Amino acid sequence: MKKVYLETYGCQMNVSDSERVATSLVSKGYEITTDENSADIILLNTCSVREKAEQKLYTRVGRLRASHVKKPMIGVMGCVAQLEGETLFKKINGVDFVVGTRAVGRLSDAIQNVLEHGRGYSDLGEREFDYDWSVSDAQLHSPYVAFIPIIEGCNKFCTYCIVPFSRGRERSLPASDIIRNVLQLRRRGIKEIHLIGQNVNSYRPMTESGLEGFEGRTPFSRLLRAVAATGMERIKFNTSFPRDFHADIVDAIDEHENLCNWVHLPVQSGSDDVLRRMKRLHTIERYFNIIDKVKSSPRDVSLTTDIIVGFPGETEDDFLKTVEMVEYCKFDSSYIFKYSPRPGTPAYEMSDNVNAGEKTRRFRHLEEVQRRIQNENLQRYLGRTLDVLAEKPAAKSDGDLTGHSTCHRVVNFPGEKVLLGETVKVAITEIKSNSLYGEVVAAA
Ligand code: SF4
């Protein structure tokens, strides 16, 4: 039996692809191993959003080749594979095959091909019509939390982003398949699902079977209501695109307790000029209107975002508008990035005129503002009781368990392993910089 070691970089979509690749390979007689040294085949599921992704892949493959006595087969999948294709064979010595983002269902064919004909096989083709989206229990990244892709690819072409090129155009999965998947996972004991996609709220299936009876609402809010009706205990979704975020999504959260009170809505900048150059398709006024709607919810919805500082042409005035925007939105957390150009994107051709020192200054300034707001926001949880799914033992403290609240806060608490997989009520006693700490007071 050949052993396969899978290494995954990047977003939830890559994690989810790896889960299905592992499921499919096991069904074909392969064994998945967590020990790279014993592997016959090593699969690197790559991310192109990372800076110098190709260089890092080059280094990783080199290290693997140097450290292995048994010379495993090395396959590259994911976004770098899709973007670079066969050129990887020339650029990186030691890669045996390349499988693109939509060809992962044929990974065993790639392995077979290399076994029979030697290195140099590539498949950058489209997904099969009857692709199996299910994941076996053994290959889920968590026994209690599952990712469910509902839309692949992206049509937005933000000028700094490579995803539309690496993941292709948007394709929504049929609602009936999604609902069936949710019901199966619920029967198998999964407590929390994340509906995932580059832009989940751009969800627009060709046929909407399973979504009848919610006329006048956007397809995504109808999907949310249909998924809520399955009785799955906790439902989260990630990531949302501001232009396609409509009030009916918040209404659905208000009406269904199992739709969790967390929205991740990347804003990227507080300046309309910068947003226009980024081609984000929303204005700050539109974004504020959404934020006002989210904040008016009685569910105390937690808000998180992504922000880029130092985008080409970003002036001090533009940057200060971003600071003002952060002060207004009071995000519970923000992923702040310094802009760095990605080859192949339109922004790569723009003059990157904010120097490295200035980017760092803006990054630190914004980080400080965000940290203060975050600390103030976290105080609201002190003394409150949150419903927390006990997911695993805490990494840093013996005897503690860790999990997430419905508002997607990390919560640590003392607890026996018998609680794993249970939702418990945790009274918050301490606020840490990026997490909460508390005591279990009851089963939820
Ligand atoms: S919406 Fe923009 S940033 Fe997000 S994946 Fe699509 S192109 Fe990239």
The global form is globular
Report the top-level CATH class of the largest domain: Alpha Beta
Mean pLDDT: 94
For this structure, the CATH topology of the largest domain is pyruvate-formate lyase- activating enzyme
Measured distance between first and last alpha carbons: 44 Å
CATH superfamily of the largest domain: tm_1862 like domain
Structural class by helix and strand composition = alpha/beta
Strand content: 15-25%
Q: How would you portray this structure in words?
A:
The protein has 13 helices and 19 strands. The chain folds into three domains: 121 residues, 3-Layer(aba) Sandwich (Rossmann fold), CATH 3.40.50.12160; 244 residues, tm_1862 like domain (pyruvate-formate lyase- activating enzyme), CATH 3.80.30; 62 residues, OB fold (Dihydrolipoamide Acetyltransferase, E2P). The strands form five sheets. A six-stranded parallel beta sheet has the order 2-1-3-4-5-6, with helices on both faces. A five-stranded mixed β-barrel has the order 15-16-17-19-18. Helix 8 runs parallel beside helix 9 and helix 12 runs parallel beside helix 13. The two termini are 44 Å apart. By secondary structure, the protein is α/β, with parallel strands linked by helices. Bound molecules: iron/sulfur cluster. The site of iron/sulfur cluster (SF4) has 10 residues, from helix 6.
